[in-house]
Specification:
65% of the residues lie in helices and 10% in strands. With 581 residues, it is an alpha/beta fold. It has two domains: 231 residues, Up-down Bundle (ABC transporter transmembrane region fold); 239 residues, 3-Layer(aba) Sandwich (Rossmann fold). The protein has a six-stranded mixed β-sheet with strand order 6-7-8-3-9-10, sandwiched between helices. Strand 1 and strand 2 form a beta hairpin. The longest helix is centred in the middle third of the chain and has 53 residues. The chain starts with a helix and ends with a helix. The relative contact order is 0.08.
Length: 581
């Protein structure tokens, strides 16, 4: 258990000194509280003496006692304020740092990381588990340390007054600590199981929400709900089982504390009756007895939570310790944006996708990549952007191997436009601004005009301040695509990759999007994956993939002379688009 306390304190890192200062203020709070008890006991003692006629009370005594208690309470208030000012904000500051750190980690891991670790698991760590650390982490440590500090201070008084009372207190705390250790060990065993059900519940919920349109279209709401209900029930059953397991342990802890209190009351009463303890010390020790174990009782709840907190920190560290894809990368500046693949092979897990692929894209040229579904077209773009690392061979951008770059220094040179556009739940202005956070309003408008989206943006009541909804749900597909192009135009990266950017757009929007793409790709090195004939035929070079290998390569006219995949591809597209070259 102490090891968990140490881990949580170490987790605070740069805030550790403030933690220790908070514990120091807790010590002074305990001193002030015990001083208040001492003054209260002395006041009761003097009142009893006055009632028995042994010593008369005066108004000055009452005034002095009032002032003394006021001073003690004032000091307790001051030290409590200092502790809160020192400790209370640490968890919020630290968890904010952690969320930012996780964001920095996730942008530097390979995309394969998200295939191994479910989105729901990551979401649970960033939201639920970090929120628990935020709300309970420092509080649990403070409660545990404060409980033992308060008990320790009062025990010092008992050692001074009667060593027998101190020994009974030590025995009670020892028994309490054994039960708390038992409770902590049970927490360590059960919290990982509970976390698993929470993560499953989060994953199932996200999956259900994302797939809701598909579920409704097939009218299978009840069947889809069965899965999410199962996750909810599992979480409920585990929580109930955990509480049933903790209930007897908690009761045993309560029993140990109350037994120690009863033993102390019996001892104090016996010593007082036999005349070995004065009335004043008897009153004082009784008051101490009823307050010293309050802190230890709260330690039980802290121990129950420590297992959970340590488990959360482990899950947090498992993300933070993920291997960076650019761990050895450097910030490299380049002025030529040619791309070269040399004997590149790549597999997702054990499934080969790219096999011994070699080609070169000259600076300022346009290359189209075509081929059947699953032939590796999108993978090539992902490898250039270093979303994954190749298993063998090399990829160079600007005559530097992409593995030499840091992710930021590589991707600042690349704009990517996908068929499936993602917009943030934010304003249109901020979604475009994402391409260049330092851009002015005038530059954003200029990019929007080039992307042919300024006109429809201005038709919205709030213009550029229109909230687009989750994933841009309030916009049409063509509108979302043009905003994504405006974002890419604003970034103005010298290397542009278009992955089926016009594949699912209606003819009216396609005209505007082609105009936007011309603005985006002007004087750039362009790699485009497309099935549209107009995009493919105008390319400086066409790379034809089949089963992860280059089947053909050349200009449109050259490839038409061959009886290969490309010619068949063109014939199919001519029939599909209803016209001939």
């Amino acid at each position: 258990m102490l090891d968990s306390v140490r881990k949580i304190i170490n987790w605070t890192e740069k805030y550790k000194r403030r933690m220790y200062m908070g514990f120091l203020w807790t010590f002074f709070i305990s001193i002030s509280a015990s001083l208040t008890i001492l003054l209260a006991a002395y006041s009761v003692y003097r009142v009893l003496l006055d009632i028995r006629g042994e010593a008369a009370l005066s108004s000055s005594f009452a005034l002095w006692m009032f002032m003394a208690v006021a001073v003690a309470v004032g000091f307790r208030f001051l030290f409590t304020h200092l502790r809160m000012a020192t400790l209370e904000s640490i968890s919020y500051e630290k968890t904010a740092d952690e969320r930012i750190a996780i964001g920095n980690v996730l942008k530097r891991v390979p995309l394969g990381y998200f295939e191994l670790k479910k989105t729901g698991d990551i979401t649970a760590v960033i939201t639920t588990q970090l929120t628990l650390l935020e709300n309970l982490g420092i509080g649990m440590i403070n409660r545990m340390i404060s409980g033992y500090i308060t008990t320790g201070v009062i025990m010092l008084y008992l050692i001074i007054f009667r060593i027998e009372a101190a020994l009974i207190s030590i025995l009670g705390i020892f028994l309490s600590s054994l039960v708390i250790s038992w409770l902590y060990n049970e927490s360590n065993r059960t919290w990982p199981i509970l976390h698993k059900t929470q993560e499953d519940m989060s994953s199932r919920t996200i999956e259900y929400i994302h797939g809701l349109s598909e579920v409704k279209s097939y009218g299978n709401e009840n069947k889809a709900l069965d899965t999410i209900k199962g996750a909810f029930n599992d979480n409920k059953n585990i929580n109930i089982a955990v509480e049933k397991k903790y209930a007897p342990i908690s009761s045993l802890h309560h029993f140990a504390i109350k037994t120690a209190i009863c033993g102390l009351i019996f001892l104090i009463s016996l010593l007082t009756i036999e005349g070995e303890l004065s009335l004043f010390y008897s009153l004082l020790m009784l008051m101490f007895v009823f307050t010293m174990f309050e802190g230890v009782e709260s330690v039980k709840d802290a121990a129950h939570g420590l297992g959970m907190i340590e488990s959360n920190i482990k899950n947090l560290n498992s993300i933070k310790e993920a291997e960076f894809i650019d761990a050895d990368g450097q910030d490299i500046s380049i002025d030529k944006f040619d791309v070269e693949f040399k004997n590149v092979s790549f597999a997702y897990d054990s499934v080969d996708v790219i096999r011994d692929v070699s080609f070169k894209i000259e600076h300022g040229s346009t290359v189209a990549i075509v081929g059947p579904s699953g032939s590796g077209k999108t993978t090539i773009c992902n490898l250039i952007a270093r979303f994954y690392d190749v298993q063998s061979g090399s990829i160079k951008v600007g005559r530097h191997d992409v593995r030499e770059f840091s992710c930021d220094s590589l991707l600042k040179n690349i704009s990517m436009v996908f068929q499936k556009v993602y917009l943030f739940h934010d304003t249109i202005h901020n979604n475009i601004l994402f391409g260049n956070p330092n851009a002015s309003k005038e530059q954003i408008i200029e990019a929007a005009k080039k992307a042919r989206c300024h006109e429809f943006i201005m038709n919205f009541p709030d213009g550029y301040e229109t909230i687009v909804g989750d994933s841009g749900g309030t916009l049409s597909g063509g509108e979302k695509q043009r905003i994504s192009l405006a974002r890419a135009i604003l970034k103005n990266a010298p290397l542009v990759m278009l992955d089926e950017a016009t594949a699912s757009i209606d003819p009216e929007n396609e005209h505007h999007i082609h105009q936007a793409i011309r603005e985006l790709t002007k004087d750039k090195t362009v790699i485009t994956i497309a099935h549209k004939l107009s995009t493919v035929t105008n390319a400086d070079n066409i790379i034809v993939l089949k089963d992860g290998e280059i089947s053909e390569q050349g200009k449109h006219a050259e490839l038409l002379k061959n009886e290969g995949i490309y010619k068949k591809f063109i014939e199919i597209r001519e029939k599909a688009e209803g016209w001939k070259l």
